[in-house]
Amino acid sequence: AEAAAEKLQLYRRDPEGWRGCRSTGEVAVSWRPSSEFAGNLYKGEGILPASPQKIWECIKPVAGGLRTKWDQNVKDFEVIETVSDTVSICRTTTPSACMRIISPREFVDVVVMKQYEDGTMQSAATNVEHPLCPPQPNFVRGFNYPCGCFCIPVPG
């Protein structure tokens, strides 16, 4: 989990190579080739008119959290094991897509939540296997490279 958090910090600090691919009035999505796998990294950025704490309540990876209510790509989120007050093993499921051509997915990740001195909040995750969460029938087991979210306070 700590390695995933550090990897995300490296992506955040390195502005090189990101290319814009989509933008609305609220969100800009960029991509760049990954150095870890044959594919691309993606990041979405936006400024929301709310306190960082309110935004964090909507995105933090906790059981019973708000993400399953607003994110159509997250069907369910459960904690398999609590390792510490900031680290847990979690299972996330996604619904089928494209008129059920794409099967539902499940992801088992080790997740860490951090808060930094400047008020930034971060969740970082990466794939892990866990004996209490074997692959489930009717789901394709997905694999997450280091991924996560930052909630960064801005003045005003």
TrEMBL record:
Gene3D superfamilies registered for this protein in UniProt: 3.30.530.20
GO molecular function per UniProt: cholesterol binding; cholesterol transfer activity
InterPro entries per UniProt: StARD5/6, START-like_dom_sf, START_lipid-bd_dom
SUPFAM superfamilies in UniProt: Bet v1-like
Domain spans labelled START: 1-156
Keyword match Metal-binding: no
Keywords linked to the UniProt accession: Lipid transport, Lipid-binding, Transport
Pfam families: START
Domain of life: Eukaryota
Membrane-spanning segments: none
GO biological process terms, semicolon-separated: cholesterol import
Signal peptide: none
Function statement: May be involved in the intracellular transport of sterols or other lipids. May bind cholesterol or other sterols.
UniProt-recorded name of the protein: STAR5 protein
